[in-house]
Amino acid sequence: MRRSLLLGWCSLLVMMSGGEAAHATTPIDSLERIEATGVLRVGYGDTAPFSYLDNQGNVVGYSIDICQRLAKQLQVQLDLPSLEIAYVYRTPSNRVQLLNSGDIDIECNASTNTQQRRQSAQFALSHFFVSVRYVALKENGFTALEDLAGRSVSVARGTVNVSQINQVNRERQLNLSVVPVGTLQEAFDLVADGRVAAFAMDDILLSTMIAESDHPDAYALSEEAITSIEPLGFLMQLGDDAFAAEVNKALEHIYTSPEMPLLYERWFQQPLPGKDITLNVPMSAVLAEHFATPREINAD
To answer: Does 235 map to a domain?
Structure first.
């Protein structure tokens, strides 16, 4: 009798835990919720020029400009009377969690589209391409990966740069000491304070951080790239395929419009709002070709 009761309770617990697991992994229907609420939940970061707060506390950036146009185009495609944007701050560490919980529908920042990351989220059509390099104090004369042998390198937790620097460390036997920290700024500050030799990150983001620093002339980007050219894209919840299809349809319309080169120029060749810096980065041939004929591009 006691054995039967025990088996019964065990079966009940298994069913309950199985049901919870299934519920936790069931994708949220973003389209259904957007149509019901008239709100698109957009994740943003502290990652100029892609997404950041200006001096007035407004969420701005290259990615944000695109996603504002995305909201307008989704409103047309879904035949909605209105579609507002609700901005939600995210970090590299919690972005996938916020997608899975439904706190954000889409991350409008600059996430690298890699095979590893595609196991936990899906990507929209790319909006930028980067290579990963490192920043170091110019006085040290570091330009290549071999210059870092036996030294320490900072990386931001939750970024693909952690696995990238670990991989190159193994392959090239550099004996690096990898130092993960919580934010990009913390990783950069470790270089500024001389506590690590270098900080590895996407080259465009490093260029922005150097330009924003108190002493831009004190830093140098590595001449050698850690990775080949990689695509950046907006993140969406894995399995939310209907929403992803509508997003990509809208982005294809935006990317191929005559307005896209002007939008790019605003963020990469003109002064950044609230930053008092100009990046002076012309659109690459790879990105121009992609905007002319948008297609899915993966880093690996």
So the answer is: yes
